[in-house]
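Sync notes, pocket subgroup
Present: LS, DG
LS reminded everyone that the earlier model was apo-only. Rerun requested with adenosine-5'-diphosphate included. Inputs:
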Amino acid sequence: MSCSGNCGSCSSDCEDRKPSKEDFMVPANKYTKVKRMIGVVSGKGGVGKSMVTSLLSILMRRKGYETAILDADVTGPSIPKTFGLHGKVAANEEGIIPALSNTGIKIVSSNLLLDTEDTPVIWRGPVIANAVKQFWSEVLWGDIDYMFVDMPPGTGDVPLTVFQSLPLDGIIIVASPQELVAMIVAKAVNMANAMDIPVLGLIENYSYVQCGSCGEKIKVFGESHVDEAAEKFGLPVLARIPIDPSLAWTLDHEAAEDFNGDWLDGAAAELEKRYPAEKEA
Ligand code: ADP
């Protein structure tokens, strides 16, 4: 069938008709040059998405890369506090200047833009999505090798808008063993596929507790279903993180950058390999 170019008079569900990812993409400003942007997603809040975002950015920073975190979890912003960042970020007539962590990670979060950090964000979905777009377009990020986006939890309207607005190179799905993992992973994978964004793999959090005396790994939530979900979608499990009191302490005491643990080393290495900071032309 020949195409007249007028979708309004044609019922064909052809490729040309579908809006492409680029149609929704928000442009960055002239001071922003991000080589790689990785989204960290989860099916619901509390599974450790922000923790994974923070630790991955810390590991990439330790490798010597220019690293940033765009905290798109606008209603549950926990990133600044784990890095010990408080108060408002500065701005000039060109845009917003990101906060800088002790080791030099650039961070923007709703918590760093509000008058007081205990002000609840009670905005509706479209306002939240617009705020995230501004975190991208109106922040003077500078030259960044790896930007991590702490996505809003779930697979609803807000994360979808974020998916559509930002030039994500790939996503990592964080899940806990007791979740309805298969369903959550399926939703996240479908959303990523619809946006043409590759899924790098899964990270399981709260996998086990290691006994301090005998070293036994106790699976608090029973046998995990993450492997089944990973196999179903042909995805690697990039890391399994235990429930770890010292990790919780480090995050609670605003010292994320002091963490030591090797659980995410493999994931960081995979990231570096699969998404080298030098993009091919
Ligand atoms: P999300 O971003 O998915 O809502 P967070 O990363 O904020 O979840 O984690 C929720 C809480 O659980 C935080 O207080 C965090 O410090 C803690 N936490 C996350 N993962 C672990 C873990 N593996 N061991 C101990 N505490 C953890």
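DG: The longest helix spans residues 49-62.
LS: Residues 42, 45-51, 76, 78, 153, 205-206, 241, 243-244, 247-248, 251 surround adenosine-5'-diphosphate (CB under 6 Å).
Action: DG to write up.
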